[in-house]
Amino acid sequence: MQLDLLNGGLEDPTVGEYVPTPAWVVRDLLQTPGVSVPHRGSSLRILDACAGMGLIGMELERLAVEGAADEGETRMRRPQITAVEAHPGRLERCPEHWQRECAGVVEWCEQAQRDGRVFDLAICNPPFSMYFEIADALLKVRRPADGHVWMVGPWEYVARVSRSAWWDAHPPEWVLRLKKRPWPAVVRECCWVGWAPRTTMTKLRRAGR
Distance (Å, rounded) from C-alpha 59 to C-alpha 78? Predict the structure, then answer.
C-alpha cells in the first residue's frame, strides 16, 4: 500500500506562520488497515492536543456523524472533543460546542491526570522539539483499558529513539512512515505513531511496502 500523507500544524520558520493540518491527512490515516477510532458514539472522548484551529478534531467529528439520518442521530454519534491549545487566537477558532482549554499540553495533562480525566483517543501534531515529552504526557491521560494516542513526528527522530529505554517502555502499536513533506523549510521525513494499551510489538509500515 502506498500512502502520500502530509503533516501540518507546525510553525514554518520560512514564513513565520502557523500551517494547519490538512483534513484529508486524518481520512487517509483512518483508511490504513489496523487504524480505527473506538466506536462509542457520544460517549467517545477525544483529546485534540496542540489543537491549533481544531482541524484534526473537526475531521474526526465529521467522519463520526457522516451519514446520520437526522439531528438526533447526529447528537448520538458526535464525540466529546476537548481542544488544548496554548495560542488563544487559534483556540477560539475551534468549534464552540467543544471544551476549549488554553494551556500548554504537558502542564494540562498533568492537571488532567490529577483530576482523573481520561480519553479514548488523544491525537496530536506537536512541536517536534517536544515530541516525546508530549507523547509521555498524553499516554498518561488515555483510557487505561483501551485508550489510544496518535502523533505525527519526524521520522529521523522516531527511528533513533526507537532504540531507547523510553520506547521499550512505551512500545507503539504501529508506525506509519509518510511519503513526503510539502514545506521547503521542513526537510525531515515524518511519520504517524500510534499507541494502544494491548501492544505486544511494533509494526513498521513504510510507504510502498
Answer: 12
Which phi and psi angles does 132 have, rounded to 5°? Answer: -80, -20
Average pLDDT value for the chain:
79
Under 8 Å between Cβ of 170 and 139: yes
Domain count, the chain: 1
In angstroms, the CA 204 to CA 53 distance is 30
**Looking at the domain assignment, is residue 5 inside a domain?**
no
CA separation for the pair 159, 74 (Å, rounded): 40
**Residue 50 pLDDT:** 94
Does any domain span residue 2? no
Coil/strand/helix, residue 176:
strand
What is the reported pLDDT for 16?
40
For position 77, which CATH number holds? 3.40.50.150
**Structural domain harbouring 93:** 10-205
The C-alpha torsion from 49 through 53 and 59 to 61, rounded to 10°, is 70
Give this prediction's pTM: 0.81
Which amino acid type is present at position 51?
A: A
- Residue whose C-alpha is closest to residue 21's, from 206, 184, 183: 183
Q: How far apart are CA 112 and CA 145, in angstroms?
A: 17
Give the residue among 132, 138, 140 at the shortest CA–CA distance from 162: 132
Q: Which helix (H) or strand (E) holds 156?
A: helix 155-161
In this structure, is residue 123 part of a structural domain?
yes
Question: What was the pLDDT predicted at 125?
Answer: 87
